[in-house]
Amino acid sequence: MTDLYQSQRAMRNMRRAAMQRGVIAVLDVGSSKIACLVLRFENADDVREDGLGSLAGQSQFRVIGAATTRSRGVRFGEVDAMQETERAIRTAVQAAQKMAQTRVDHVIACFSGAQPRSYGLAGEIQIMDGQVSEQDVARVLSACDVPDFGQGREVLHAHPVNFAIDHRSGLGDPRGHVGNKLAADMHLLTIDTGAVQNLLYCIRRCDLEIAGLASSAYVSGLASLVEDEQELGAACIDMGGGATGLSIFIKKHMIFAESVRLGGDHVTSDISKGLQVPLATAERIKTIHGGVQATGMDDREMIEIGADCGDWEKDRRKVSRTELIGIMRPRVEEILEEVRVILDAAGFDQLPSQQIVLTGGASQIPGLDMLAARILGQNVRLGRPLRVQGLPQAATGAAFSSTVGLCLFAAHPQDEWWDFEIPTERYPARSLRRAVKWFKDNW
């Protein structure tokens, strides 16, 4: 745990240094597209890192470069073919740099795979001087009992979500409060180490330094949920190409995250097999004519497939929209059923508000919100990301939720466990050696 703590602190310092220089890039590595935005920070000299909460160290920024390329070598939100992914990342970053007319050295990346798992931790300490100090906050966070999450997994996020002093709970920032006993609840998100190391390797091969990592389920929620939803309780379902991310927020903190290894690409694949057409044709048919709610008109609406195999009869083949919906609906229902199982297991029905927000590229299928309301049995709406200054019109749709969320994550980082100086008595004796080894291996 300590070497991870050191590496995350190093990343935070790198992000701060990049912001003080004024320019940083965000990179969304998805299964269907890789998007890169270059951000310029207006008040870069005023970057500060104080305060507990989602707006610690806030800074105004503007998008000055944007580029998107088709994702290659990524499956289920994880790197599958190294060289293909590296080439795609390089293409997106170079195009964004060209538009911004500046060179970028540091990127903050997000990804949707790596099998995220959530844990709720609790810690409790006696307050030393009767008044909570920064050291007390660090002590209570390091007093949380970290579970044995097994070999081959790493912590990605460790957010303090609640503080309690004596009998008073629900505190956002306990510093300065008077009391005897301080307790904290922390949300820990672990991911598969191999998947992350593959992504880091690809990014470093592109001559870029990593200044931060985030789960796309988390950043999509930041971009798509309005303030009231984050406060009262809501779930964000980010339906991407190769994976569907799910995050639950309450009191402006993420308290649960999970992902389903199904997405829009699986719907495209079903259309390709069902109609016996190439994947590119299937994607076009899904985008223009797709849907999941059948109506009486669909039998009469014929879709020309328009293939180019050379056989005139086969190229001019037509199918009804009813047939297309019959192929798409079972797969979409399967994705939503998987999401419902995860929501039930997470205890989502216990929250005061149970709003569900659908976002991501695959959420654009017509009629999906009505089908989701029927399967998930809750208030469902389609979410679009917040408007960010300088963002091109083409990047304002639901498919760019995680990209825009990553900009907000870069500018307004929520405090995490490693933002506080861990007390020296919590350091294992071999921590320094492990930290040095980590830097040798990874930087």
Roughly what percent helix?
A: 25-40%
Shape: globular
- Beta strand count: 18
The main sheet orders its strands as 3-2-1-6-11
Q: Which residues sit in consecutive blocks of at least 5 with pLDDT less than 50?
A: 44-58, 424-440
Description:
The protein has a domain at 117-192: Dna Ligase, domain 1 (2-Layer Sandwich). Helix content is 36%, strand content 27%. The protein is built from 13 helices and 18 strands. It has a five-stranded mixed beta sheet, sandwiched between helices. It has a five-stranded mixed beta sheet with strand order 14-13-12-17-18, with helices on both faces. Helix 2 crosses helix 4. The chain is globular, with a radius of gyration of 23 Å. The model is unreliable at 44-58 and 424-440 (pLDDT under 50). It is a peripheral membrane protein.
In short:
With about 450 residues, this protein is of the alpha+beta class. The protein has helices at about 1-20, 80-100, 135-140, 195-205, 215-225, 225-230, 265-275, 280-290, 310-315, 320-345, 370-375, 400-410, 430-440, and strands at about 25-30, 35-40, 60-70, 75, 80, 105-110, 115-125, 155-165, 170, 180-190, 210-215, 235-240, 245-250, 255-260, 300-305, 320, 355-360, 380.
